[in-house]
Every structure is written in C-alpha cells, then in structure tokens.
Design a protein that fits this description.
2 domains; alpha/beta; TIM Barrel
Amino acid sequence: MKTTSYKPRRLSVAPMMDWTDRHCRMFHRQITRHTWLYTEMVTTGALIHGDVERHLKFNEEEHPVALQLGGSEPADLAKSAKLGEQWGYDEINLNCGCPSERVQKGAFGACLMAEPQLVADCVKAMRDAVEIDVTVKHRIGIDEVSSYGFVRDFVGTIAEAGCHTFIAHARNAILKGLSPKENREIPPLKPEYAYQLKRDFPHLEIIINGGIKTVEEIDLHLQHVDGVMLGREAYHNPYLMASFDARYYGDDAPVKSRQEIIEAMLPYIAAQLERYGNNGAGLRLNSITRHMLGLMTGIPGARAFRQTLSDARKLALGDPRLLLDAAARMQPVAA
C-alpha cells in the first residue's frame, strides 16, 4: 500500500450528505491542519455515468482527505476507487453505515452489513485497484440484531480481505421506520462495542463515531480506540476543532482566531465566485458561507453573526466581505 506523511487518523470529520462538500472542507482546514476530512458519499453510478470532475474535484489544501463511496458492485467500486486515487485522494472509504431508505434502494449503506462476504469482495476489488488505504465505515448492528458478535464477525470477515481501518458508528441502524435523523438519535449508543473491537482486533485501526461533542469525550474514547470521528458537532460548532492540532497531534503552531479564519477564507471565496459563479455552475456566496454559520457558536453575538450571514438580500450581492460585516456586528467583536 502507498504510504503518506500525514498524521494518523486520531481525529476526523465524518462524511455528511449536503454538508461536507469541498467548500466546507476548505473552511475546516483553516481551523485544523491535521484532522482527516471526508467527502460526502459519492455513488459509483455518479462516477461511472456522471460528471467525474464535479464529484471529485477538491482543493489541494484539503489533504489529508478521503473519498467515501457508496456502492455494492465490486467492479464498479474498483473503477470508482481508481478514479479517486487518480484525482489525488488519500483514502477510499466504503459506506456500510447509512440507513436511509433511498440508499438501501441502491443496495448499499448499512444494509450491506447483512452481507459481510459481499463487502469483503468489494474491499478486495478496491484494494487490488489502488495503492491508497481502503477503509470501511459501518454501524454496530442492523434492526433488532444488536449482539456484539454480529459486528465482531462483520469486522473479522472484512479484515480477512485486507481492510485495516474500521470506523464504527456505535449505534444500530434501523432500516425501516426511522429517518436518518432518528437513526442518529434513537438507537442507543454503545461505545463499549467499539472498545471491544479494539481489544479483539488489536492489529486493526478502530475509530469510533456517534454523538461525540466535547474534547473530554474524545479524550475518554482515545483511551480505548485509535481515533475519533466527529459528525454534526464539527459542523455546528467548528471552532471546537481549533485545539485539535496541539492537543492530539503535538503541533504547537499558533491557533487561528475566528477573525483570522474569516480573513483566510476571503481570497478563496472571491476566487471561487470569480471562477464558478459566472459560468453557469450555480455557485453563489451562500454555497460557501452556509458552512460557516456555526463559527461563532458559544460566544456573545453568535446570533447576530448568523442573522447577517443569512440575509438573502446581502448574500445576493455576492461580496465575500459580508463575512467581515457579520463579525463586526457582533457584540463584543469576536476574538
């Protein structure tokens, strides 16, 4: 396998549909240099039959960055993984965790956990096609199947196909009757299952995901597993990640203030709008700034910041300096 100089996956931001696009990832990279970033799920059909550049283009500053694929046909996944490698991604991740009925209709996502040998075949096909890491993101069970033995056997089977890294969302996936949102909230979290996976497979890299919101929770999990993947907390409260490089990677470089993060994004936003906003691609200022609404979470004036960035009339002007205006309207001015 190809080796990289990137830090290990101690911290990562989960693939989130409609959220973790390349603009979101570019924003997150201003906050943390070493945290691994994941794309939204991209289906094999979208790559094989669609616009490859639209789905795979990313900014060089995003590294380390992983491409998450959705699919269940080994040959299609191999082709798609090869495309991801050619476009420069550092990892290919297979989605075996999404519980949505729309994804199930494509015969992939969490329903694949019922077919571990098929997943193993998919992983082997991708590993044969690329030199970068191939990883799997999964749940700990599906529907009423909630015994630890189920996820243990799933991981064991896939590991035999050569997968070294498993990202365990420590909840069951309920395939019928619950929305994706409810699937993130109703099935109980069982972090002990992820901990046990690490004890049973000490040679594997085990990363835990699901409901993690504080550095104290991260610290606790890292006593038992190799890494932690944040989901919605990283999106809604992104400045939480400002401490990650020093705390988890030993990087003592100065931490950017919120104001510095805004200023770092301005040239990027201006360049993106100039390049893509006038060529029919549909890029608008809000396409980027919507990912930044949570930057001021937890400090006085955060509501005023969000309100200013949500003003449709001002957004329509397409001036990136709206971010500076939003920060200036906070009382006190954001540090």
